[in-house]
Design goal:
The chain has about 400 residues and is an all-alpha fold. The longest helix has 27 residues. It has 16 helices and no strands. It is about 70% helix and about 0% strand. It has one domain.
């Protein structure tokens, strides 16, 4: 029922946006559909049907629908909603594995009714595919975390592959979070799982191989040439024409030219991604919807503070499969965000992951979360002990554990 309601609300939002004529301000000026039509008119053996810097995976998905079904933009939006809802279902499945049936039932309603997603899940953009990729990663991570299931590694890899074809720089951070999750899950199950040691060795081998590339990417020359130039161009895209950036959503330039500057200024960009646009920075319908996302984030953060205090010391044990992708995607977007408008698009699937963490912590803080075993058994709901006998001196049944 919540999935049906969520689909209905999103499809209703598509119709409402089309009826009111505000679709142009909501979708922006991205030419993804135009590039998709170029791919659609080509033959399948032309080489354009594989993700590349020229045509990313979301454009190829659009092109396939245009070529085979002659879909107009409205129909493309309907399928975008389907991809996003599939990602939401995968996140809810991860919540079930980590916190049980009650948490999943609450979570699916919350994620289906999250207000910003109702509008932004239909964007003809990258975000719906990133929601799907995130869902695959967190569900695979949950299966690795609970039982070190190898099919979890496959799900995680598939999610990273979708992200790599859609938004490569985010995918690299997502893969890094996935490797750390596998390492963490393997270390906590050493001695109880035969496959834990091979996984640890595999992650260590990947780390050794990747270390030189990471050092090269974060060298001062590379940071100045690539990351800092990209940051300057994003925060003031009009500089090449000799004009100032007068957009109400522009972000202040930050220095990412060295490793120390990157570490020092990253929290500022994280704050920008999480909290902007501010309520006084709104000029059109799209920005007003972005502000809805800001209000949701503020509410989630306030509730997270409450439940973090109640589950302090257990947070990663309870929600690591969602926390790792969430934190690493947040860093990726903080390094690449150009303005607050771009930021609230990025935030649409970060909010879904944050809500997943909140639901898991809330369930365990209430004392009814699943007892996640490391011996491979399914999570089982905790059962409250029955009342003691009221007779004075009554003894417990043989074999009973003391309360």
């Amino acid at each position: 029922m919540p999935i049906v309601v969520g689909l209905g609300l999103r499809w209703g939002a598509i119709a409402g946006v089309a009826a009111t004529g505000v679709g142009g301000s909501l979708r922006g000026v991205d030419d993804f559909v135009l590039r998709s039509r170029e791919v659609a008119v080509s033959a399948f053996d032309s080489g354009l049907w594989f993700p590349s810097p020229a045509h990313r995976l979301h454009e190829i998905v659009f092109a396939l629908q245009i070529k085979l079904g002659d879909f107009p933009e409205g129909a493309l939006q309907v399928t975008q909603v389907g991809l996003a809802m599939l990602g939401i279902m995968l996140i809810v499945a991860a919540v079930y594995d980590l916190a049980g049936q009650h948490a999943a039932r609450v979570g699916v309603w919350i994620l289906a009714l999250e207000p910003a997603s109702i509008f932004f899940n239909s964007f003809l953009h990258r975000e719906p595919l990133l929601v799907l990729a995130s869902g695959l990663v967190v569900l695979g991570g949950a299966k690795i975390w609970v039982r070190l299931e190898l099919k979890g590694v496959l799900l995680l890899g598939l999610g990273c592959a979708i992200a790599l074809g859609t938004r490569p720089y985010a995918a690299w951070f997502l893969m890094t979070g996935g490797f750390l999750l596998i390492l963490h899950a393997s270390l906590r199950q050493v001695g109880t799982r035969m496959r834990s040691l091979p996984l640890i060795y595999a992650v260590a081998a990947v780390a050794v191989v990747a270390a030189p590339a990471v050092l090269a990417l974060t060298s001062q020359d590379n940071l100045q040439t690539n990351l800092q130039n990209s940051q300057d161009a994003n925060t003031n895209p009009y500089a090449r024409r000799g004009a100032a950036n007068t957009s109400n959503l522009n972000l202040e330039a930050v220095d990412f030219s060295t490793r120390s500057d990157l570490v020092a200024n990253l929290p500022r960009r994280v704050r920008d991604v999480v909290l902007r646009p501010y309520p006084w920075q709104l000029e059109n319908t799209s920005q007003q919807l972005g502000a809805i996302g800001t209000l949701v984030v503020i509410g989630v953060l306030l509730m997270l503070v409450v439940y973090l205090r109640r589950t302090w010391g257990q947070v990663f044990a309870l929600a690591a499969p969602i926390l790792y992708p969430l934190l690493f995607l947040l860093v990726a977007y903080a390094l690449s965000v150009g303005n607050a408008g771009t930021g609230f698009r990025y935030r649409t699937h970060l909010v879904l992951l944050g809500l997943g963490v909140l639901i898991i912590l809330r369930e365990h803080a209430r004392g009814s979360g699943s007892a996640t075993a490391v011996d491979g058994s399914r999570p089982v709901e905790r059962v409250r002990p029955g009342p003691r006998s009221s007779r004075p001196g009554a003894s417990a049944p043989a074999g009973a554990l003391p309360r």
